[in-house]
Design brief:
With about 700 residues, this protein is α/β, with parallel strands linked by helices. Helices cover about 25% and strands about 30% of the residues. It contains 14 helices and 53 strands. α7 links the parallel β46 and β47. α3 packs antiparallel against α4 and α10 packs across α11. The C terminus is likely disordered.
């Protein structure tokens, strides 16, 4: 807490009655816990030996080091801090130092006994962006580290925790012998949650670390490897809900373990042209994880102990599992490759209830088994097509009923009398037509209707043309919106027409409209109410649903969104939803935005003479006002909520969309997260049970404020 006697001292190069001309003069004049207000301009600062607060009061306030900090408690807010090429910009030799919304060029070194906490900061352009050494401690929250040789270096018994942060583009200098790394840790402890490591030489480089735990971390686009770990027998590496993809080099596996133990839970290694995981003299434990390789062995283990349950290994052209001199037990797992396994001198390696699938076999029965059932395909399509979770759940219930009726019919059981007509209630253009088309497709697959086509008709058209003019096959998408011809005089006619439609066993009727419009139709007769017993309620699109709509359009056109574009888009839709901006919160608004983005994307592809590019943030043509731009620059953090226990889990773009709750261990689908500063997040947070924020992260600096 700040002392009640603390005061603020302004820095004014022109001088004034109560101001100091320079930062050192202000420090000399100050007492512990005072604040020093820094205006625009660059000021030299080489030493801080008191507990002080340094705060920018204007844009462009900058401190030039290198500086040494020995004060007990120091806070920097809103400042740019830069050093020189010879030393770190900041060296913390003692005390607790907090950086808030700072840009630091030249690196930070935390020495023995020091503690450093970073909130919404950016560290860049240094040999080591953050060096934590000699049993010191540091934590990064919503902080970016980029353009360094090593983004974060943790040495000699130190501890580093990272939450909702990003480390990228950290690589060795040209001609250097050593590899660059996002995180380099030696004989130290690292905890991470919601971390993104991208575009580094190596994502995580470990040497003899007693414990490293990563939760919901995404490794992507690394040049040499995602993880290289050389450990002692007691070293532990724990990966939970992590994902790995887009490694550019095939010379090294995506994950490389020598010595120590690896526990991998609910994690995914996507197929690249390299080995997914190599292990030598290590203990490997896998639980509900999937590792794939596009052209190499999926997992290559030597002289290792393997324990696994529900592990899936797949290689397109090599063995799924290559093991020599290994032991252990693998249960309830599957191996797909050419051959599925290549096991040598491993009599003590036991496979229990495992599936071995030779990917070179292409007989129809095997292909059908791999493709899965029609029900699985429909569920996949449902998850991709329908954004609203409650709508998806109701449609799944109806489809499963149709599936059960179909299977009973195949076995000769009598078909139960059941209505599959549905009423979709909600605002216009919130996905009701996509939901209707999905239902028609599913009912066609299970022979409830003869055609999956969806024919739109209004009540006014029904009154004017009658039933005989309607298509005989497929589903009718009956709109009850703004039915001007539906009057007191025509009520009986409307009732008769709809009753006749719903009695026809060859027809499926899907009615849509606002709540009162649907109720008006349902009140016409008990028969109509009984026919439309499947009532599905739609809400206005939220940010996640809007992002789904945009990405579905990209998928249809074979366009891939870059990671930056996806996050920019997700944040923008959160912003527009909070503002209730009708230009972007409907199907028409999203498709209009997509059409403009696709045009800019194709123009850029034409200039580059490449048509396999990813859609970048610059193609999105979003109206970026100051507030949205600030939100984008402040390292936004995202979360998802488990539908089973309602508790919060960290979300990072690039993770597997099947999340496993860290609290109740139940899986759930979430392709996108909720921005932690949005109304949609606050609404769910208020409804969720109270839990501590962050499953791993330690927020010690909150207690100091």
């Amino acid at each position: 807490m700040r002392s009640p006697r603390a005061r603020d001292i302004s820095v004014d190069p022109a001088g004034g009655m109560f101001d100091s001309k320079t930062i050192p003069a202000a420090i000399k004049k100050s007492s512990p816990d005072d604040g020093i207000l820094v205006p625009a301009g660059e000021y030299e600062l080489t030493e801080v030996d008191k507990s002080l607060r340094f705060q920018a009061i204007e844009n462009g306030a900058s401190l030039r080091g290198p500086m040494v900090i020995t004060g007990d408690f120091v806070i920097f807010t809103g400042l740019k801090i830069r050093g020189n090429d010879d030393a770190p910009a900041i060296e913390i030799r003692k005390g607790i130092v907090i950086f808030e919304e700072c840009l630091i060029e030249g690196g930070v070194r935390v020495c023995e006994g020091g503690q450093a906490y970073f909130t919404v900061c950016h560290i860049r352009k240094a040999e080591e962006g953050l060096c934590i050494t000699d049993r010191s401690t540091s934590e990064l929250f919503r902080t970016a580290v980029s353009g360094c040789h090593a983004g974060v270096a943790v040495r000699h018994g130190s501890t580093c925790a990272l939450y909702a942060s990003r480390i990228e583009q950290c690589a060795a200098k040209p001609g250097a012998d050593e590899l660059g790394a996002g995180i380099f840790a030696e004989a130290s402890t690292v905890y991470a949650e919601g971390l993104s490591l991208r575009g580094n030489s190596v994502g995580l480089y470990l040497q003899d670390c007693p414990e490293v735990r990563l939760l919901s971390t995404h490794f992507s686009e690394h040049h040499a490897a995602s993880i290289i770990s050389a450990g002692l027998a007691s070293s532990k590496l724990h990966l939970r809900s992590c994902s790995f993809d887009k490694q550019s080099s095939a010379r090294c596996g995506q994950i490389n373990i020598t010595g120590g133990s690896l526990l991998m839970e609910h994690s995914l290694v996507r197929p690249e042209a390299t080995i997914a995981l190599t292990a030598n003299q290590a203990r490997l434990e896998f639980f509900r994880s999937r590792l794939e390789s596009a052209s190499e062995i999926a997992v290559d283990a030597q002289m290792s102990h393997i324990e696994a349950t529900d592990l899936s290994l797949q290689s397109i052209t090599g063995a799924a599992l290559s093991a020599s001199d290994c032991r252990g037990v693998i249960k309830l797992s599957s191996f797909t490759g050419q051959p599925p396994t290549a096991i040598l001198r491993s009599n003590d390696l036991i496979l229990e209830e495992c599936k071995l699938i030779d990917s070179s076999v292409t007989d129809p029965d095997t292909v059908e088994k791999r493709a899965g059932s029609a029900m699985d395909a429909l569920m996949e399509a449902l998850n991709q097509t329908v954004s609203h979770e409650n709508v998806r759940a109701e449609l799944e219930r109806i489809i499963r009923q149709a599936h059960a009726a179909y299977r009973r019919g195949l076995r000769g059981f009598p078909m139960t009398t059941q209505s599959f007509h549905a009423a979709l209630i909600g605002p216009k253009s919130v996905g009701e037509e996509s939901a209707g088309a999905m239902l028609a497709q599913a009912l066609h697959v299970f022979s409830i209707i003869h055609s999956p086509e969806l024919h739109r008709v209004t009540i006014d058209q029904l009154l004017e043309e009658g039933i005989d003019q309607l298509p005989k096959e497929g589903a009718l998408f009956l709109s009850a919106r703004e039915a001007t011809g539906f009057t007191t005089a025509t009520t009986a006619a409307v009732r008769t027409l709809i009753e006749n439609l719903t009695r026809d066993p060859e027809r499926l009727v899907i009615m849509e409209g606002e709540r009162e419009e649907i109720r008006r139709v349902l009140r016409l007769s008990p028969a109509i109410q009984l026919a439309f017993s499947n009532i599905i309620n739609f809400a206005s699109y939220g940010p996640v649903e809007l992002t789904n709509l945009f990405t579905q359009a990209c998928i249809r056109d074979g366009i891939t969104l870059s990671s930056d574009a996806a996050l920019t888009l997700l944040l923008a839709f959160h912003f527009y939803s909070d503002r209730m901006d009708r230009r972007f919160t409907s199907v028409e608004g999203v498709l209009s935005l997509y059409q403009r983005a696709r045009r800019l994307y194709l123009e850029r592809c034409g200039r580059l003479e490449r048509f396999d590019c990813e859609m970048e943030a610059q193609d999105l043509d979003l109206p970026m006002d100051k507030l949205l731009r600030n939100a984008t620059d402040r390292m936004p953090a995202f979360s998802s909520f488990c539908p089973s226990c309602s508790k919060e889990n960290p979300w990072v773009h690039g993770l597997d969309r099947t999340m496993v709750c860290v609290h109740c261990e139940k899986p759930y689908l979430t392709k996108w997260g909720l921005w932690r500063e949005s109304f949609a997040y606050r609404r769910l947070k208020e409804a969720a049970p109270r839990i501590e924020g962050g499953a791993i992260s330690r927020r010690a600096h909150h207690s100091h404020k």
